[in-house]
Specification:
Blueprint (H helix, E strand, L loop, with lengths): L1 E2 L5 E2 L11 H17 L10 H19 L4 H10 L4 H6 L4 H52 L26 H6 L7 H8 L7 H18 L10 H16 L3 H15 L17 H17 L10 H19 L4 H10 L4 H6 L4 H53 L1
Antiparallel strand pairs: 1-2
């Protein structure tokens, strides 16, 4: 970045720091779609979710128009409109064109969700009209039945309006995650993170290791003074700290996760509720399937030689002990349980996972261990049976040869 007239900051015409591809803009759009669907309507916003999104669409239009202008003053106004992202944009070396594309991807997500809301509203209107017509018909039926002299009058069926479930919206800030160049981990990512040092998937291991190192740099920028990105992480930590002080939950999560990478511990306990995302049974099923694959294919730790069953049995025992500690009513035991998962704590805190969800993760892992041990033991029994059969066949052949020798 360069300083222009009157000390204003000028965005570069090309990005010399990194290459931004189409997939990244698509990721921005996907994340913002989720954001518009799940985030609480901003405080101070007088209106509905639909009103908020429409305002965003209009504001993005104005900002894009300003940033695309040939008038330097208008471009500066456009930059003022994205001032909350400016430290990240400058540190990432993003060009003016790339910022405009980011805003367009965000706007596309807004338009998509806005259309979905319109369709939902139309469907609600249709349901309301149908319900009113049904209730009117039933009222008429009830009136006729009342006037009837039959002993068993027809009783109108009571209409019960469907109960709309109360959904707790995840309080996650996509822009803060984007600023830190970090993605919100899913439950299955915890399993991938746990095996990052031994997995054969080098690309996935590198991605997770890069995330781990980024968190370390956020935790202690001074410790990486020789790093070319040193200033970027200093500015980023300051921004995250400021956002955290304003009550931004996402900034809190990132800072807690970062702190846990320095020594494997954190002063923060696992939350009682996940305010970042919704975890479903499908997520736990994915964890179980991945751990079944891991137990079958990962190299057996050297201390167990080649005994895969012994390794899995010991790992399962440790997992079950951890579950018992985390579920204990004693606070000290709960802390001990959290120490047992210190290696994956950065992902747990970054994902906002609750104690109950962490226990669910461990149970899925334990179930995978049980399944694989059973499969391996059956395989071994099959090998023994086959070996016994072969031995029996060999003995039979030997006896036949001996008998033939005697009779010859």
């Amino acid at each position: 970045p360069e300083l222009g007239a009157a000390g204003t900051t000028t965005l570069p015409t090309t990005n010399t720091v990194k290459t931004v591809n189409k997939e990244e803009y698509q990721a921005v759009q996907d994340m913002w779609k989720q954001n518009y669907q799940n985030l609480e309507v901003p405080q101070g916003m007088a209106g509905t979710r639909a009103d908020w999104i429409k305002d965003d669409i209009e504001n993005i239009d104005k900002t894009v128009e300003l940033l695309s202008s040939s008038d330097a003053n208008k471009v500066q106004q456009g930059m003022d409109n994205v001032s909350n992202l400016l430290p990240f944009l400058l540190a990432g070396g993003f060009s003016q064109t790339e910022i405009i594309e980011y805003l367009k991807a965000k706007q596309d997500a807004a338009k998509e969700v806005s259309k979905e809301i319109e369709i939902e509203e139309e469907q609600k209107v249709g349901v309301t009209v149908t319900t009113q017509q049904t209730q009117a018909q039933q009222t008429m039926t009830a009136s006729v039945s009342t006037e009837s002299e039959q002993e068993d009058p027809i009783t109108a069926t009571e209409i019960v309006s469907p109960t709309v479930p109360v959904i707790v919206k995840p309080q996650i800030s996509t822009e803060i995650l984007t600023m830190a160049d970090i993605k919100l981990p899913k439950m299955v990512d915890v399993a991938r993170y746990e095996i990052r040092k031994v997995t054969g998937n080098k690309e996935e291991a590198k991605r997770l290791q890069n995330m781990h190192e980024a968190l370390q740099k956020i935790a202690n920028p001074a410790g990486f003074s020789a790093d070319p990105d040193h200033k970027k992480f200093e500015d980023l930590k300051q921004k995250l700290t400021e956002e955290s002080q304003k009550g931004n939950k996402t900034a809190d999560m990132i800072l807690s996760a970062a702190t846990s990478t320095t020594d494997g511990t954190t002063s923060d306990s696992l939350p009682t509720d996940n305010q970042a995302q919704t975890v479903s049974q499908q997520d736990f099923d994915e964890v179980r399937k991945l751990w079944e694959e891991n137990y079958h294919t990962l190299p057996v730790p050297s201390e167990y030689g080649s005994d895969r069953v012994a390794w899995i049995t010991a790992d399962k025992k440790y997992v079950d002990e951890t579950i018992a500690l985390l579920q204990a009513p004693d606070t000290e035991k709960q802390k001990e349980g959290q120490k047992h998962v210190s290696d994956i704590m950065p992902m747990l805190l970054l994902g906002g996972f609750s104690t109950e969800e962490v226990v669910g993760y461990l149970k899925a892992k334990s179930e995978a261990g049980t399944t694989v041990i059973s499969e391996l033991q059956k395989d071994e029994e099959g090998k023994i049976t086959i070996a016994s059969g072969v031995k029996q066949e060999e003995n039979t052949l030997k006896k036949e040869e001996e008998n033939n020798g005697k009779t010859g």
